[in-house]
Design brief:
- The complex is a heterodimer.
- Chain A is an all-beta fold.
- Chain A contains no helices and eleven strands.
- Chain A has strands at about 5, 10-15, 20-25, 30-40, 45-50, 55-60, 60-65, 70-75, 85-90, 100, 105-110.
- Chain B starts with a strand and ends with a strand.
- By secondary structure, chain B is mainly beta.
- Chain B is built from no helices and eleven strands.
- In chain B, the strands form two sheets. In chain B, strands 2, 4, 5, 6, 9, 10 and 11 form a seven-stranded mixed β-sheet that branches.
- Chain B is about 0% helix and about 45% strand.
- In chain B, a hairpin with a 2-residue loop joins strand 5 and strand 6.
- The chains are: A mainly beta, B mainly beta.
- At the A-B interface, strand 4, strand 5 and strand 9 of A face strand 5, strand 9 and strand 10 of B.
C-alpha cells in the first residue's frame, strides 16, 4: 500500500527565513510525485510534478527536489503570501490514483 | 477560460436527506475524481471515472454515489447512508495518457457540506 508522510505538520517562518518541507513516500513503482498548494477554503493548486530521482523544478521562491525515498520543497526568502498548506501526493506506475500526505501548514510572518 | 467548476460553494443538509454536488469541467479531460477532505487530514478518494459511463470506487465510497453520463460532468450524491458527511468535497480532472494512466490532476474550488 502506498504511503506518504509529510513533515513537519506545521511550520512558522519569519519573512526571508528560508526552509524546507519534507515528503517521504513508499510506493512499489513511482510514476510521479506531485506538489500542490492549498489556501484555506479553496481547492489545491498544482505546483510541480517530479518523475525521477535527481529531478528538480523551480517556480519563483519554490524549488522541489526528488530522491528515491523523499521529496523536498525548498522555500527561499519566503513572503507572507507563501502562507498556505502544501500537499504532496504520489502516483504508482500502474495506476491513475493519487495518494496524498496530510500536508504541511506554512505560516510566514512579516 | 478553461477550468473546473463546483456548485454550490456551501451546502447545508438535514439528516436523512440526499444531496447532489455538481462538478463540471471544460478542459476536455477524460478522467474525473471526487475527494473528501476533513480538518487535519489528507485528501481521501471517494470515486473516480476514467471514461464516460464508467466509474470505480475509491477508498471511502460507502454512502456516496456518482454518475458519468457526459464527459464534462461528474456529479456526486451524498446519501443518507453516509454517517458523517460534514466535510469539504473536492472534484478534480486529468487527461488520460497512453497505457491507461492519467496525467496531472487539477482541482475545482470545492463544496463545503454541513449536516445540520
Amino acid at each position: 500500500e502506498d504511503q506518504v508522510t509529510q513533515s513537519p505538520e506545521a511550520l512558522r517562518l519569519q519573512e526571508g527565513e528560508s526552509s524546507s518541507l519534507n515528503c517521504s513516500y513508499t510506493v512499489s513503482g513511482l510514476r510521479g510525485l506531485f506538489w500542490y498548494r492549498q489556501d484555506p477554503g479553496k481547492g489545491p493548486e498544482f505546483l510541480f510534478t517530479l518523475y525521477s530521482a535527481g529531478e528538480e523544478k523551480e517556480k519563483e521562491r519554490l524549488k522541489a527536489t526528488l530522491t528515491k525515498k523523499e521529496s523536498f520543497l525548498h522555500i527561499t526568502a519566503p513572503k507572507p503570501e507563501d502562507s498556505a498548506t502544501y500537499l504532496c501526493a504520489v502516483k504508482e506506475t500502474s495506476g491513475s490514483r493519487l495518494t496524498f500526505g496530510e500536508g504541511t501548514q506554512l505560516t510566514v510572518n512579516p | 477560460d478553461g477550468g473546473i467548476t463546483q456548485s454550490p460553494k456551501y451546502l447545508f443538509r438535514k439528516e436523512g436527506q440526499n444531496v447532489t454536488l455538481s462538478c463540471e469541467q471544460n478542459l476536455n479531460h477524460d478522467a474525473m475524481y471526487w475527494y473528501r477532505q476533513d480538518p487535519g487530514q489528507g485528501l481521501r478518494l471517494i470515486y473516480y471515472s476514467q471514461i464516460v459511463n464508467d466509474f470505480q470506487k475509491g477508498d471511502i465510497a460507502e454512502g456516496y454515489s456518482v454518475s458519468r453520463e457526459k464527459k464534462e460532468s461528474f456529479p456526486l450524491t451524498v446519501t443518507s447512508a453516509q454517517k458523517n458527511p460534514t466535510a469539504f468535497y473536492l472534484c478534480a480532472s486529468s487527461k488520460s495518457v497512453p497505457g491507461g494512466s492519467t496525467d496531472t490532476q487539477y482541482f475545482g474550488p470545492g463544496t463545503r457540506l454541513t449536516v445540520l
